[in-house]
Amino acid sequence: MSKNGGGLTTLVSDQICPKNLSVDATNVYWIDEGRETSPGEYRDGAVMTVPKSGGTPIVLAFEQDGRANLAVDDVNVYWTDCGTSARNLEDGAVLKMSKQGGAPQVVVSGQSCPGGITTDAANVYWQSNDIIFKMDKRGGVPIALATNGGSAIAVDEANVYWARVASVSRTTFHSCADERSTLFRVAKNGGTPVQVAEVVGSMSSQLVMDATAIYWVNDCTNGIWKIAKTGGNPGPILSNVTVRQVAVDATQIYWTVYEDGTVMKKAK
Questions:
Q1: Which residue of 126, 219, 251, 264 pairs with 117 in a disulfide if CB–CB is 3.0 to 4.6 A?
Q2: What CATH number did the domain enclosing 268 receive?
Q3: Last residue of a domain, one of 124, 147, 170
């Protein structure tokens, strides 16, 4: 739909738990989770695309891990494969394929259930077994940037950012009193990770950024929080709303509300 509001256009329907939405200049990409093929495993997933204007959806890759995370660049689609218990989790991999179609290619194998993934012009970055890796898109050897990684990962021109859950509630009911998460960054060229902030609650697996700040969903305050990339005191910009997902552009913040299924926006 238009950012200014108006009518909805259905791009594709009859998907099974579509997630990890990504876009480029002309198309929308997502993971179709598929059906549970065995307890806790989803080998019926698919990497999908459809033109932004709508049309027939195209299956880029089928029989994939429905738990996959997705990233796109100008040429390729990248996604993670967590592996299966039948093949052993160490058989996890990062894969890619051309946006024009073709056979999936293994970027790197032998990963322990890789999670968050993102790209820049030269490299692909991902998290596996609490390690933040980078690798040249043309191939080579994965480089470990940090050993205290987490599920959420994002990059800008200079740094890689990620969120790590430091402690979780051990009470029967969800309690924010003893839940903490830490936001880190490290230079793309390597170095010592820097703690950007420690926050109350379990940070979601999604980090979004603009030129100067990082935004995330805080499940304790039920809202959206923000911190400058350079660090400082994080603070809420929206409270008392159960946010599912968040996105930003140059001027606005957008989010989805869990309880009633609405899509909202507000000026930064």
A1: 126
A2: 2.120.10.30
A3: 147
